[in-house]
Structure formats: structure tokens, C-alpha cells
Amino acid sequence: MQVQPRKTILLIVDSFNPAALKRALDRKMVPALEFLKNRGYFSDRCVSVFPTMTPTCAGTIATGASPAGHQVPGFVWFNRREKRIVNYGISPRAVWKMGVKRVIRELLFNLNHNQLSKKVKTLYESMEEAGFSTGAVNPFIFRGGHPHQAKIPLLLQLMSAFGLGGRLMGPGKLYLGQICPPEEAAWRILSVPHCLRKFGVNDEYSGAVGRWLIHRGQQPDLLTVYLPDTDGYAHRHDPNRSEESLQRVDRQVGRIMGAFSSWDEALLKNTVIVVGDHSQSLVGDDAASMVNLSRELQNFSRLEIGREGGAPRDIALCVNERMCHIYILRDRERLLPEVIRRVSSVAGVDQLAWKEGDWFYLLGVGRGQLAFRPGREFWDEYGQGWTVKGDPRAAGARLDGGGLIFCDYPDALSQFANALNCENAGDLLVSARPGFEFTGEYGPRHPGCGSHGSLHKDDSLVPLFVAGAAFQHSRPRIQDIAPYIKSQFGLL
Questions:
Q1: Spatial CA neighbour of 476 closest among 393, 407, 384, 411
Q2: DSSP 208-253
Q3: Cβ burial, residue 378 (10 Å; 0-12/13-18/19+)
Q4: What is the pTM for the complete model shown?
Q5: Based on the number of CB atoms within 10 Å of its own CB, is 475 exposed (0-12), middle (13-18) or buried (19 or more)?
Q6: Taking the domains of the chain in order of start, what are their residue ranges?
Q7: Among candidates 420, 316, 406, 318, which has minimal Cα distance to 362?
Q8: N or C: which end of the chain has fewer CB within 10 A?
Q9: 369 and 359 in contact (C-beta within 8 Å)?
Q10: What is the Rg, in whole angstroms, of the alpha carbon atoms belonging to the chain?
């Protein structure tokens, strides 16, 4: 008789800051997370992917692929095939400029159905093809094999002139706030007051639906629960002190485990994983900390949202908070060096990366330049081999015998290589120094508060909890999560 594998509950905390978590643990503010830490694996140095933006990170968590595989390069990027800027609504100004209809269609339909590469499979696709059941509550990435009819809330329909609607392909159980609510009877119970905040895409709703599924005996083999609220909290406060929001996260983690007779029983029946998609770092509160790249590159003609047609432009500038994609739209051989020279002289710029042939180039402002490609000359801490020329300090790294040790930029060579190998990435990737944020038309500004996007450890290191089953990674990355979950079900 075949033994049924234990089920898996994956909780993803948006903008999970390790310093804030440590403070919350020390102050005994997060009993559910403390329980998981004491009963299983814990690391506060799990490495995200670059850029550290939710669509990119969520794509990696859902597929196990890097951006080079899943092809989602950020929150804002230029679609070369369609010759237009993709923006998932990075700020209210961007939503206003693009229109609600375009933003929701981009985020809800295009991201999962068209822009996430068909060459990789999500956990939902892989597991359901193997006969396992899956479900997700408020996920960013949800592509699966089951049709769900989107129910666009009336307010959004009015704002989009009733131009929205359609079918979503997701896991067997898909709940996206009011857009994909539970069955009618349950919706009446769950909707107040959850639907009053972000149409149900909030932590409280996520926890309520997760608990409801388990109580109803409808828990799938894999249940993914996305907890989005800490991201907004960190954008409004010091992210290193976001323990108040983490306390609310903990309440939902405990709420879901509390659907069983005890938290111990939850771990007897499930592998419980809690991980961040990325972290956030503190931005300075002065004007100098806000780096307007549009102004700095005003000598180059730029493609703008809503003006994709017309005369050819020099560049497309896609700002992702503390990171920026710069696309060279014509005469790359001449313009790319000019753009590099200009950007490298801008205060607040930390690193620039680009690719020529099979070589990757990394310029660390004030730290020299490094060229690298896969090889066998040096091996890094993650077991990856490289051939390098130039100064490793550009990557915040040092050579130790035959080894490459990363300091402030975890897994830097692989992160930049995978970002540049994404077909939708810019010709030039720019990362901000700690304390700085890039701004431009329609981008957000977070002076004195949290931001993210860069490769710096303050943006890219997140906590990871795994309890209920063994997890052996000494240097974990969020791209390890999907293969680990598959292995729990015998799919690797």
C-alpha cells in the first residue's frame, strides 16, 4: 500500500526583513514563527533573485527557475516583441497614466498567461500533472491547468469602462480576493471586513481562506498562501523595524496551523514553509537620496508609457525602485558605452551590468570592473564555476584560494548572469547604493522609508522556515523551494 505524502503549506511573506524578524523573535512577538524555528530549519540568509521585485521573485518561487528561465524581469520592463513598456502598477501615478484596465489586464491575465515563460512549469502545473491537488490564496503567480472565471469587482469595472473579464488558468483551488472568491456561502462569512481592503488581497483574508479550506476538509496537497501587507507597511516605515506588521503575519501563520487540533499536529500532517520573496532596505530622507534617472539621462530620447508609437527613441528607462533596466533601442554599439559613462557618474549608483557575447561585465562604482562567464577557474560558495577577469570587488567579492566569497552581494555572479540572460531584461542593469532609490516618471518615492530592487544583501536576504520535514541547504536560495517541494512528492 502506497503511503500518501504529507501535505505542504507554503506561506510567502512580501518584504520579509531579517532584522525586523530578529527583533520580533527577541521580544516574543511572533509565537507561531518561533514555534516553527524551534521545530525545524531556520535561516535568515536565504537569497532572493535579482531584481528583488515581487513578480520576478514570485516567478522563481513558483517555478524554481531563475529570471533567465521564467522570463519575468521585474515590475516594470520593456517588451521588445510588442515594443511597449510593461508596468504592473508600480505606483498610483503609473496606474493613472496607464489606466486601470491596462494595469489589471497586465497583472491578472498577461503576467501568468503570456509573459511567464511556457518553457517552465509552475508547481501547480507539475504537481497536478502528477495527480496531486494544489491551491493558492492571493498568489502573484498562479498559472495552472484549471479554468476560473474572473469576477471583477464593480468599482474596478466602472474604472475600466467594463472592459475587464475573462478566464484565469490556475490551480484546482484559486482564491484571489473578490476576483476569485470562495463559494457563495463561504464568501459571505469571509468577505467582511476583508473585502474592504485591497479587494480582499490582504493578510487577513489570506489567513481566513487558508484556515477555512483546512477546516472544510478541502486542503490540497500543496496550499500556497501569499501574505502581502508587510510590503506596504515597510514602504511607509523603516523596514528594519517592521515587527508590528510581522506580528500580524504571525497571527495568520498561527491561524492556519490552528486549523488543526494543535500546532504539533499541523507539523505531523504537513511540511510548513514560510519564506520572504525579498526584503527591503531603508532609504535616506533627504532629496539627495532620490536619484531621478530620467533627468540624468535627459540627453537621450526616451520611450514613455502611452507613447510607444511614433519616431524611434534612443532608450527605454524602466525604473524598479532601487534597480533600473535600461534598454538601448537603436545603435547599441554607440549608445551603450555612452549610457554607461553617464550612469556610472550619477551619485547613488552602485553597480552596472551588461553582456557582450558570452561575457558578462560588472562595474562596481569606485570598486573597479569585472568580466566573468561560466567556467572552471574559480568556484563560488554555491558550487558554481566561473572564469573571471578584473577586480572581484566590483561584485563585492574576494578570492580565497580557488574560491570566490561573496560579502554584501549574495550569489552576485549568478544573479547578474541570470538577470542578463533573461530575454526581457534591459541591455544595462543598474543597482542602487544602500540608502538610495531611483525615481522617474510614474515611479514611487519612499524617502525615509523602505524600498527594494537592488542586489545588496539588505534587499536580497530573507528569512526561511521549514518545519515538519528535513531541509538540508546550508546556503539556501528561494529558487531551491520549488525543487524541494517537488521532492517531497517524489517528483524529482
A1: 411
A2: HHHHHHHHTT---SEEEEEE-HHHHHHHHS-GGG-HHHHHHHHHHH
A3: buried
A4: 0.96
A5: middle
A6: 7-72+116-283+455-488, 287-448
A7: 420
A8: N
A9: no
A10: 22
Type of residue at 143: R
Average pLDDT of the residues in 119-137? 98
Taking CA atoms, 47 is separated from 8, 40, 378, 458, in Å, by 21, 19, 21, 10
Helix (H) or strand (E) holding 93: helix 92-98
Which one, of 337, 343, 348, lies nearest residue 454 by Cα?
A: 348
- pLDDT mean across residues, the chain: 93
Amino acid letter for position 437: E
In total, the chain counts a number of residues equal to 492
Give the class (CATH, top level) of 7-72+116-283+455-488: alpha beta
At 133-167, the pLDDT tens digits run: 999 999 999 999 999 988 877 677 766 666 677 89
d(CA 256, CA 67): 31
pLDDT at 93: 81
Output the nine-digit C-alpha cell for 43: 535561516
Helix/strand/coil for 172? coil
| Helix spans in 346-474 (H) | 412-420, 457-460
pLDDT tens readout for residues 386-426: 999 999 999 999 988 879 999 999 999 999 999 999 999 99
User: Half-sphere exposure of residue 209, counting CA atoms within 13 Å on the CB side?
Assistant: 35
Region of 83 on the Ramachandran plot (φ > 0 left; ψ -120 to 50 alpha; else beta):
left
Residue 284: HSE in the Cβ half-sphere, 13 Å Cα cutoff: 14
**Identity of the residue numbered 62:** A
DSSP labels, 313-367? -SEEEEEETTEEEEEE-S-HHHHHHHHHHHHHTSTTEEEEEEEETTEEEEEETTT
d(CA 228, CA 176) in angstroms, rounded, equals: 12
Q: Is the dihedral of CA 26, 28, 30, 31 positive or negative?
A: positive
Distance CA 211, CA 225 (A): 10
Contact 474, 296 (CB under 8 A): no
d(CA 359, CA 355): 6
Per the structure block, which three cell numbers stand in for 394?
566590483
How far is the C-alpha of 254 from the C-alpha of 258, rounded, in Å? 6
